[in-house]
Design a protein that fits this description.
CATH class: Mainly Alpha
Strand content: under 5%
Order of helices and strands: HHHHHHHHHHHHH
Shape: globular
Radius of gyration: 19 Å
């Protein structure tokens, strides 16, 4: 399995480098990133989520995975806050450190990574979907805006309830989660002549996930100087990609999760910082430049960190 993880990271690196070359040749441009991101979040991810969740009924112990990754994320956020206090960081930089040291890039990197690491394993993908959307995505959308508001520099002149991004519950991703879970419990013949083409189409869309995710990453990557924030980078990387997988693995042992579930949990927990962190930081002026620099550095470092963490934990 360690070799499979290394091969997956190497394959992703090759695709990202190819996409960077396409950007260099102006075949794709930085302005295209918004279009590709909308395509990923509005079409591809909902299709992948529905396809994987509808294939296998949800088991009760899978919600232990969600709980485990949520606990790991919250503890990481608290540790980042403590580190900020000890380093006597400004309030805004402490918030940026918390946003980039808690919940990882599970949707953008987690899905395709798990798909390559566990080929033809619907249970692994279903675990990854629940982990990513309920254990990472939902808390990030609910807690992230509140953190950026509290630690940011903008005036608190609107109600607290507006800091929570309830739009997540109306998004195609969340709707696909509900539909996928419901359909998984409905008995029907998947080989019926009118149904087969529908699921075949979803499988075709699923094939575009990895390339599209790498293309978006390549368009997002940019040079951001780390001068002056090296200590923050080291701390955030250790919390995000070392401490968090360790806490997740410890919980997996306590909950007696299967080997497959443990592997998926550790991999998802070791993902680099979510790109939503800088978005929330920018919205409330919570040191957005620092948050962006940390996220970009995390993505580059993950090429080495993900297989190293999996080897050390595994």
């Amino acid at each position: 399995m360690n070799l499979q993880v290394f091969e997956t990271v190497f394959a992703f690196t090759i695709i990202i480098l190819l996409c960077l070359l396409l950007r260099k040749l102006s075949i794709v441009k930085a302005d295209d990133e918004k279009i590709f991101s909308r395509l990923l979040t509005q079409v591809v991810l909902p299709a992948v989520i529905f396809l994987q969740l509808s294939a296998t009924p949800i088991k009760s112990n899978q919600f232990l995975l969600v709980f485990a990754v949520f606990v790991a994320g919250v503890l990481s956020m608290l540790l980042a806050w403590l580190a900020g206090r000890m380093l006597k960081l400004s309030k805004a930089k402490t918030g940026a450190l918390m946003l980039t040291s808690s919940f990882g890039s599970s949707a953008l990197l987690g899905y395709p990574f798990i798909a390559f690491s566990f080929p033809d394993n619907p249970e692994a993908i279903a675990d990854a979907v629940l982990l990513s959307e309920l254990g990472v995505g939902l808390p990030m959308f609910l807690i992230g805006p509140a953190i950026s508001l509290y630690f940011g520099n903008k005036s608190h002149n609107f109600s607290l309830r507006k800091t929570f991004s309830l739009s997540y519950f109306r998004s195609p991703i969340f709707i696909s989660i509900i539909l996928g879970i419901v359909v998984s419990f409905i008995p029907f013949n998947r080989n019926f002549i009118l149904i087969v083409p529908f699921f075949d189409a979803l499988k075709m869309i699923n094939g575009a996930l990895s390339v599209l995710a790498c293309l978006i990453l390549a368009l997002q990557l940019k040079y951001l100087p780390l001068k002056g924030i090296i200590p923050l980078f080291i701390i955030s990387a250790l919390i995000q990609m070392w401490f968090q997988p360790f806490i997740a693995h410890t919980q997996a042992t306590l909950y007696n999760l299967s080997t497959l579930q443990t592997q998926v949990l550790v991999l998802v927990s070791s993902m680099p910082s979510a790109v939503l962190g800088p978005v929330f930081a920018s919205e409330h002026n919570c040191a957005p430049e620092t948050a962006s620099a940390l996220v970009m550095a995390h993505i580059v470092l993950s090429i080495v960190m993900i297989p190293a963490v999996f080897y050390m934990v595994g």
